[in-house]
Amino acid sequence: MDSSSPATAENQWVCEALQRYEGPLLRYTLRLLNGDLEAARDVVQDAFVKLIQQDRSAVEDHLAPWLYRVCRNRALDRIRKEQRMQTSLPDAPNTNGRLGSSDDTHREQPAEQAQHPETRSRLLTMVADLPERQREVLRLKFQGDLSYREIAEVMDLTVSHVGVLIHTGIQTLRQRMIGSPATARTTSTPGT
Amino acid sequence: MNDINTNDPRLTAYALGELEDAERVEFESLLTEREDLRAEIDAIRAVASELHDELMHEPTPALSGEQREAIKAGARSGSSLRLVGEGETTIRPAAWWWRAGISGAAAVLLLGVALPLAMRGRTSGGELAIDKTPAGPTGGAVRENLAESDEKTEGLASQLEEATRMKDELADARTQLEKSSSDALRLTPNEIVEYPNDWPELSLRRAQTEPESTTLYSISGATNPPAANRRARETVARTRVAPASKSAPDQTPAMQFPSQSGAPDGEAKKPAQQQQENSLTLFQSTLNDDADNFEPASRDRYNPIVENEFLGVAAAPLSTFSIDVDTASYSMVRRQLRDGYRPAPDSVRLEELINYFDYKYDAPSPGDHDPFRANVEVATCPWQPEHRLVRIGIKGMEIPHNDRPATNLVFLLDVSGSMSDQNKLPLVKQGLMRLVDNLTVDDRVAIVVYAGASGLVLDSTFVSDKETILGALDRLSAGGSTNGGAGIELAYKVAQDHFIKDGVNRVILATDGDFNVGVTNNGDLFRLIEEKTKSGVFLTTLGFGTGNLNDAMLEQLADKGNGMCAYIDTIEEAQKVLIDQMSGSLVTIAKDVKIQVEFNPAIVKTYRLLGYENRALAAKDFNDDTKDAGEIGAGHTVTALYEIEPVAMLARAEAQPEAPTEQRRGRDGRLMKQAEDTNVESAESAPAESAVESKDESAAPAPEQPTVDPLRYQAPAQLNEIARTSGEMLTVKLRYKQPGGDTSTLVQFPVHDEGETWDQSTGDFKFAASVAAFGMVLRDSSYKGNATFNSIMDWARAGESTDPHGYRKAFVDMVARAKQIMDPTSD
Known about the structure:
heterodimer; A: mainly alpha; Arc Repressor Mutant, subunit A; 2 domains; globular; B: alpha+beta; six-stranded mixed sheet; five-stranded antiparallel sheet; 25 helices
């Protein structure tokens, strides 16, 4: 059924983008923001508001990376802002570093591990143990289904750098999986 | 490239399909000689696949319903303007102030605290300062600043939380402003002004004249707004966002609104908020935080439902909607209840619950002109006995099993890793095997699967070779991720290659989720399906399993594909959809079927359509053959219910209609919508809306039926001869197209209310009413009247008489189950 007025049809693409990317973007942004759901919702809403103002032809062919990138930048802005306000805290991370531009800190790790510790599979626990940027590329690749090129656009890296991060991440996971025979949930995976 | 070792990142890139073509070809030739690398790639793929599965099973959060709707409203407005996103914090003090009931002076004080802090917390912006407008602080920043500065202030934090929540509503308001203003208006945060005795004004200016001003005009509570605000205020009033009441807060009538997400009904809401709730579409959050018993952490996605309201016949004489034969909601509700959860309100679509059941309506006779027959019954509304309930039933032409035209089916099956659960792929296979068993030798079946790659598992094969088909189904196994886009394209291609003229040509899609790999976005997918549908290949979508079900998308796909959408949770359901109702599921007898009802104002005062919320059409779409609508399958029954508030007998005798702009309230006190149709929200309706607001000012506090002064400039509309003398309650108009046709046929007939009582009504009427009431109780609808689980069971049992498959009996059991979960204490 198409009950839309012409104006609606014109902007239907934004609603479709919303439907398709709302969940994935929130899931991604929530990680960046240490599980602060309200903040993540604000960021994602802002990204879509910004999308409305874009010329469709300018973003449509790279819609997913565009959205992820906006969310990422806004989330990082927020984190920077918080850091400035908390500079008195002893373990404040370096303040000029945007997430991931300094080398692989483990800043997010506690939040990531704290979530559903009992239901979380071994594999995801291993993912949580990876360095920050490896975690992020793996999530963008396997949760966001972005290509190397798109991930490079989102994170401001070269494509080959993305390739190295993903490769390293997967190799590490693989070694740890071999190292721990109790690896759970291999049922649907042929070859393991 | 021969020096490649097992730790080369290109191995991973190759395994994930990320190498450029030239490099990939080179790589592949190398792989033929290097077994160690091939093994390495397999191992990488295994990890990748498992990682993908694990990550895709993580819970997916969602935006609040308000946020989502604010975005959609913004998209609809098509505006290229940016309303400053973060400025609304400055208006929030009004909200906490009112809510907390503290004095105007305290509010000013609060502002004085919040704003300087907020300013300090503001950043230079970066991404945030999109168009160089001074960006205000974010809600989060204010929250933290305040918490930091004044932790000891009891209650302040919670007020701020409340204020933050209101951000969403304000976002809606902004969007409305944007929509209705053709000028380049800009809402600048620092110009938002607070008047303790003159409700908060949203100050608007033309963008060209926008200064760098960061002055807060009236932080001290000035009562004279700057002249610059005057025009702005007028604009605001026209756009329905401004609070209508100019009275002081303590004189504002405490109006009641239907409960939203469990908020206490009696709580007085501030006028601005009421106005927004009233004039903007009401959207209930899909995340109902207050209620318990909902399925935790489910990623199943449902579109929000805003229930239809009672509409006044004088203002909205026409009700227009598309028919809907989907039944998915019923099985999803059943599944949630069976699992011990209270169904998510947005998964409860009334029309799909009602249409899940077959009713014994008269089918058209073989010689009839139209492929379906409509019949109408009017009797007492069981949950609101002073109201009448109108049931419009449509029955499609029956096609005996052996008269079914030759059938060309393509099964498009999701075999991604997540489909391995017992209630997914195994159930799909079982159901489809039964279907194949019931096809005839002239029918054909092909199987296309999609996962990491899509592929043709079985080219179109005559059912005479049934063993081949069943064998292919049997061998399917789950693994990999999903690329629905390519799969659906291939499926349509196979269907078109074997197209049977005048036969049934249909793709049957079975999935547990959505199409989440590849470049395809939903827009392309919908366009693709609309395009393919023109070729005469229709689409049926079948949802399976839980956890990642994209119900909204499956329903939309089926709509675009001229098909139906069902949710299959058990083999019995598969039997019902695929075998018992096979003709209906496969053979379409009429398409783009629309219903328009015109009510007679001499008889009907207000009416409410139960369900079909996402099927509403504009009145003008009824005669517009380019507007898509729902399909009817062979033997299908479609039922629509209207609850009607009759004109009082005395008034009826005088045959006095009401003034067209008169305001009425439903029994819950909610203002009646003025627009003719929910879809039509245009600038032209603005004057009427401002009339609404001016009425509000004088509205007395919360009477059941507030009176409105007679209009000074208009006489009440006159009823014509037919309205006064015919005794007709309403006229039903139906439009439909033949399955292969492009022009519609009109069918219309008047309906009289013969005064049938509940006891006199038919079993089908009673049963349909009980199912509707069940849906309303599950949704905790404000329209449920006196319906309870117990009364629903009584009504349903009274209508259980015709129940060949035992579905109605099962319904009563399900109501008992719902009662156990949601209301275990009552008897």
